[in-house]
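Lay summary. Proteins are chains of building blocks that fold into shapes, and those shapes determine what they do. In this project we predict the shape from the chain. Here is one chain we studied, written as its sequence of building blocks.
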Amino acid sequence: QHTPKTPKFSELNDNDKISDDKGSSSEKSLGWFEFAVHLDPKNFHAWNTLGFIHKDAGNYEKSENCFRQCIRHNVGFVPAYHALSHLLTSQGFFKKALQVIEDGLKHHSTSDLYNSKALCLLELGEYDECVIESKKSLDIIKKEPSHFDTHVVNNVFLFTVNVAVRALMATNRIPEIISIYEPVLKRFPDSSKLHNNFGYFLLKDGQGERAVESWKKAISIEPDNWAVLLNLGMHFHDVNEFLEATLYFDKCVKTC
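And here is the predicted shape, written in a compact code that computers can read:
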């Protein structure tokens, strides 16, 4: 006579807690969410969470089924497309993942989905298409200021830049990499790592003097960055300025 109320997603156990605990509480969570979808098979939030539980347990086939059930009951729920595509790419099923992403993009054009698509294309060797999709992701990300905070772990903006750069490196399109990095450095002027990377690509483009300027800027930000010191030492060694090279090699050894 009484149908129990299906729990709201906010009332359910948190995903991080589930992922961190492989013991009895994880089993209880599994039972709880399975009960939730039994009560309401259209509870897409519960299906989505079940997908993560099975993924963490290594049950990839069950995980895939749960994410697909989630999408089936809410075709506009983008996180499920994203999660399913990651599950598939982690197993090397890049073409299947691409199809999932394409389906998701029919409902929402999000930076995460374009990012996932770019990664799949990168793995498949479709470098030109990868760059195009990465740039679509960057255009969306630029509208959200929080993505430009370098203190945020796994900064989405920089991750997307790196995906595009990897594709351009594979086709030796160094000038395009430089054109991508220049505006990035304006947004992150205090990043020693970015200045170091920029110097590397400038040198590859034959712009040795600009490369040294970029590396010295990196050192002014982070004096003990051994990677930058090494790059400076190697560059001066290659141009036969051995005293300068020795100076930077010596500093590099002391900081390693």
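What the prediction tells us: The radius of gyration is 24 Å.
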